[in-house]
TrEMBL record:
Taxonomic lineage from the root: Bacteria, Pseudomonadati, Pseudomonadota, Betaproteobacteria, Neisseriales
Entries under HAMAP family matching the protein: Glu_tRNA_reductase (MF_00087)
Catalytic activity: (S)-4-amino-5-oxopentanoate + tRNA(Glu) + NADP(+) = L-glutamyl-tRNA(Glu) + NADPH + H(+)
Record keywords, A-Z: NADP, Oxidoreductase, Porphyrin biosynthesis
Domain Tetrapyrrole biosynthesis glutamyl-tRNA reductase dimerisation span(s) in chain numbering: 317-413
Protein name: Glutamyl-tRNA reductase
Gene: hemA
Residue positions of the active site: 50
Pathway given in the UniProt record: Porphyrin-containing compound metabolism; protoporphyrin-IX biosynthesis; 5-aminolevulinate from L-glutamyl-tRNA(Glu): step 1/2
Organism: Iodobacter violaceini
Family stated for the protein in its record: Belongs to the glutamyl-tRNA reductase family.
């Protein structure tokens, strides 16, 4: 078994690169089937969020996985390799545990990534690409995350992307309470953002979604209205603040749509936060004079503020992870013994079955039971001892000391 993690995240690449390597939820099942069909890849899982795309594999050839990622995303290996990290074995397990615990997140200690990892595990299980190794990694990652959150205060008072969005909006507008806010999408991140903005008492909350039913469910929680994405061109000009996070493969708000909205608003500013990868708002929209557009990368400095005070909590969390990585190593080592243990048990079972069959035949022929049992016992002992005795008799002089020590330990032949 060889655990491998190949990925890109907000540390190694800007959003313009990350969005080119991202997988939408609809793409993941097919991608998993393709990846696991590659030579040397026996297990696979894909984690793809706004901050990272990572391939978790049980694979012998890292370059095969790298080539697959480049090919399936339509890029050359040379183009994407500078932005990637490749981790193996214990380093890969440590990374998975840190990600699950929120230590590798833009928002230190955030919990959303744990749900995204559970989604990735579920996708892989449904696709049939989750085997013994990846199951062991993911289940341990979930357990480590729980332990870290229970034993440390790593997530206490963390500045979320949602809270950061509110902070930035309040730098542009005197008060959110005087603003009309539009949320595009109806997923977990949008709901979190809506909760934070709703606490500031905005003049109006509107949710735009592909399906009106899902949008209405979210809008009703905050006393707002729901509209369809198709309504955006005619409604965008109404809103002072726009927050978007969808899984759309192409931008929803283009430069032309934004220009028409600004003209209708007589160039009153619009504050936009695009939390999606790939982006929901065309990059060129940020060039417009009266649009203040922020992406997930732009929020990084805001969410980092105040996190230095939790350095001690990070240290405690890292100590827990180091210990659990040691447990993982021992588990993997024990799994390597399984084929030999299985073969040894099969060997013993064959001897027992053969000798038992011989004894039954003798008893059926009317032979003395005591004599049959004595012969059965003697033959069993001889057959079991044949292989180790033959090995001892044929051991080379230079290997004799180590072989004797091993045999005495295996059979508990104490001095």
């Amino acid at each position: 078994m060889n655990l491998l993690v190949l990925g890109v995240n907000y540390h190694t690449a800007p959003v313009a690169v990350r969005e080119r390597l991202a997988f939408t939820p609809a793409e993941v099942p097919t991608a998993l089937a393709m990846l696991s069909a590659e030579h040397g890849v026996s297990e696979a899982a894909i984690v793809s969020t706004c901050n990272r795309t990572e391939l978790y594999c049980n694979a012998r050839e890292p370059q095969q996985v790298l080539a697959w990622l480049a090919n399936t995303r339509g890029h050359s290996v040379e183009d994407i390799e500078p932005h990637l990290y490749l981790l193996n074995g214990g380093d890969a397990a440590s990374h998975a545990f840190r990600v699950a615990s929120g230590l590798d997140s833009m928002v230190l200690g955030e919990t959303q990534i744990l749900g995204q990892l559970k989604d990735a595990e579920r996708f892989a299980r449904d696709a049939g690409t989750m085997g013994v190794l990846l199951n062991g990694v993911f289940q341990r990652a979930f357990s480590v995350a729980k332990e870290v959150r229970t034993q440390t205060r790593i997530g206490a008072a963390s500045v979320s992307m949602a809270a950061a969005s509110v902070r930035l909006a309040e730098r542009l507008f005197p008060s959110v309470s005087s603003c009309k806010v539009l949320f595009i999408g109806a997923g977990e991140m949008i709901e979190l953002c809506a909760t934070h903005f709703h606490a500031r008492g905005p003049k109006q909350i509107t949710v735009a979604n592909r399906t009106i039913e899902r949008g209405e469910i979210l809008a009703q929680k905050f006393g707002g209205e729901a509209i369809l994405l198709s309504d955006l061109p005619s409604r965008l000009a109404e809103f002072d603040i726009v927050v978007t996070s969808t899984a759309a493969p192409l931008p929803i708000v283009g430069k032309g749509m934004a220009e028409r909205a600004l003209k209708e608003r007589k160039h009153r500013p619009i504050f936009m936060v695009d939390l999606a990868v790939p982006r929901d708002v065309e990059e060129e929209v940020g060039d417009l004079a009266d649009v203040y557009l922020y992406t997930v990368d732009d929020l990084a400095e805001v969410v980092r503020q105040g996190q230095e005070s939790r350095a001690g909590e990070v240290e405690s969390a890292e100590a827990i992870i180091t210990e659990r990585v040691g447990d993982f190593h021992r588990w993997v080592s024990s799994r390597a013994l399984v084929p030999t243990i299985r073969d040894l048990k099969d060997y013993a079972d064959r001897i027992a079955r053969n000798e038992l069959e011989k004894a039954r035949k003798k008893l059926a022929a009317g032979e003395n039971a005591e004599a049959v049992l004595a012969e059965f016992s003697r033959q069993m002992a001889n057959k079991f001892m044949h292989a180790p005795l033959a090995a001892l008799n044929n051991v080379l002089p230079e290997e004799q000391e180590n072989t004797l020590a091993t045999v005495r330990r295996l059979y508990r032949l104490h001095e």
